[in-house]
Design a protein that fits this description.
Strand content: 5-15%
Shape: globular
Radius of gyration: 19 Å
Helix content: 25-40%
Distance between the termini: 13 Å
Number of domains: 2
CATH class of the largest domain: Alpha Beta
Oligomer: single chain
CATH architecture of the largest domain: 3-Layer(aba) Sandwich
Structural class: alpha/beta
Bound molecules: phosphoric acid mono(formamide)ester
Number of strands: 9
CATH superfamily of the largest domain: Aspartate/ornithine carbamoyltransferase
């Protein structure tokens, strides 16, 4: 297994099975700190820099919370418009990260351009973590989600993942790549215009991800162990920020999870959603035994503790 110390976390394309389990084990070790709401001094001499060119609630704050739990420091920006990268100067990623690398020890970047964190990693001497790049990938979210599956189901192997929603989404890409390392089936359900791109499916074929595409929730709901959801009503992820139009539409029934749909699901199936949600996941579902998205949100802090401590070399 490759060392995590100093490593960029840009994609799950190249993640090996042992590396997933290594991070899950570190997360298990650190979880009591989050559960007991303690702060420790594991990263007391380290600083996290956040560079968010797109809005975020969970990803930025979970990384920041994780750093605080580990006794580290946090600096950065959550609105590029208040920096020289987002004003008149439109400062390049290269010039920006040449500054940021002097301000801390690890950089977490979200950007509207696919590949921007990869570009940052070329010019930055500190590890770069991809917090979501355009439609590209969202590796830390899927690490969080697979850790949640492991904790809630006791296994990842042997499960059927039904992934519902916009399959152009960065989470869906990271999920497809990650699942190549497990003995699972990925069932894809998406509106036609949000279907996975042929190039992405070709990559899944090459990596050996076991997937099939279905047309209707009724075809798969009874088989699902993990129901993985993304909205189909959502902004354009290639924009820095997008206001919600008045006519943003409603989610077609085929891509919604409701208490009625869940009556046909396995009793022990779980629902994950990276959030935020629109009307594809109604608040009524929160009361069902299947809902695990709040646990997923909690695990978001735990997994970021595991990632930050690993890339900062706390375990070597
Ligand atoms: N899940 C997720 O990426 O949420 P945020 O956009 O709030 O970070």
């Amino acid at each position: 297994m490759r060392s995590f110390t100093g490593r960029d976390i840009l994609s799950l394309k190249d993640f090996e099975r042992s590396e997933f389990f290594h991070l899950f084990e570190i997360a298990d070790r650190l979880e009591p700190i989050a559960r007991e709401r303690r702060n420790t001094d594991l990263l007391a001499h380290k600083t996290l820099v956040t560079a968010f060119y797109q809005p975020s609630t969970r990803t930025r704050l979970a990384h920041e919370a994780a750093m605080h739990r580990l006794g580290g420091h946090v600096t950065g920006f959550s609105d590029a418009k208040m920096t020289r990268a987002g004003d008149f100067y439109q400062e390049s990623i290269k010039d920006t990260v040449h500054m940021l690398e002097y301000y801390g020890d690890v950089l977490v970047m979200r950007h509207f351009e696919q590949g921007a964190p990869h570009e940052a990693a070329k010019w930055c001497s500190i590890p770069v973590i991809n917090a979501g790049d355009g439609w590209g990938e969202h590796p830390t979210q899927i690490l969080t989600d697979l850790y949640t599956v492991l904790k809630e189901k006791g296994t990842i192997d042997g499960l059927t993942f039904v992934a519902i929603g916009d399959h152009r989404m960065r989470t869906m890409h990271s999920l497809g790549y990650a699942l190549s390392q497990f003995d699972v089936e990925m069932v894809i359900l998406a509106p036609e215009e949000m279907s996975p791109l042929p190039e992405f499916l070709a990559e899944l074929d090459e990596k050996g991800t076991n997937y099939r595409v279905v047309d209707h929730i009724d075809d798969v709901i009874a088989e699902a162990d993990v129901i993985y959801m993304e909205p189909v009503i959502q902004p354009d992820y290639t924009l820095s920020v997008q206001e919600r139009p008045d006519d943003y539409g409603l989610t077609p029934a085929n891509y919604k999870i409701t208490p009625e749909v869940m009556k046909r699901a396995k009793g022990d199936s779980i629902i994950l959603h990276s959030l935020p949600r629109m009307d594809e996941l109604l608040p009524e579902v929160d009361q069902l035994k299947h809902a695990r998205y709040w646990q997923e949100a909690y695990n978001g802090v735990v997994m970021r503790m595991a990632l930050l401590s690993s890339v900062l070399g706390a375990w070597e």
